[in-house]
Here is the input.
Amino acid sequence: MKLYQHPASTSCRPIMMLIADEGLAVDQQIIDIMAGEQYGEAFTKINPSNFVPVLEDGDFRLIESSAILKYLAEKSGSASYPTDPQSRARVNEVMDWFNTNFYRAFGYGLVYPQVLDHVKLPDEAANNLLVATGKAQAERYLKILNDHILGQGSPWLCGETMTIADYLASGIISLGEVIGCTFSAYPNVRAWYDRIKALPNWQSANAGVYEWSKFTQGADYLRV
Here is the structure.
């Protein structure tokens, strides 16, 4: 198997951590998305959508982070993707919630428009409104995450055992490192994130986001 990835990518890092945790034999090739390599002819043939991650397993190819996590976990028999139908449905549900709700608000509403030029709106006033709206929406979803998803006393998003939902969510939450989020108003989220960061392969799999954050320090960002 082969994974095309970038070390700072929000959607690649959870996969890289799962690969490390499970000891999977996956070759990894870095695509320099900062230099635009994803738009080159060679990579466009691999993924015409021009983004990472991409997983190849022989002639089989996947281009979505959530699908890749599920495929790798199921193929390896990882306990992080339960086989019981209801437990698996809960994991799928939480992953969908993060992808379709939380990531849209926190990533594309709050973080990216402050640090990525290609995401920023050309009109400064409009971009400021986008960020303010993203912050408000992110705070709403963080309260749901804190009070309801993590508010039942379980250490992980789907209960007593870490699942691929935690992997996926960790990549998104860790975007907060780039703009200096503390999540102090959300103690259950903070405690969950601290548990994730204490895992043995966290630092190696997520070194890219900490390197990225070195270039964004010092600005007066809106943060949570």
User: Anything to note?
Assistant: The first helix runs from residue 13 to 22. DSSP finds ten helices and four strands in the chain. The domain at 85-214 is CATH 1.20.1050.10 (Glutathione S-transferase Yfyf (Class Pi); Chain A, domain 2). The chain has a mean pLDDT of 97.
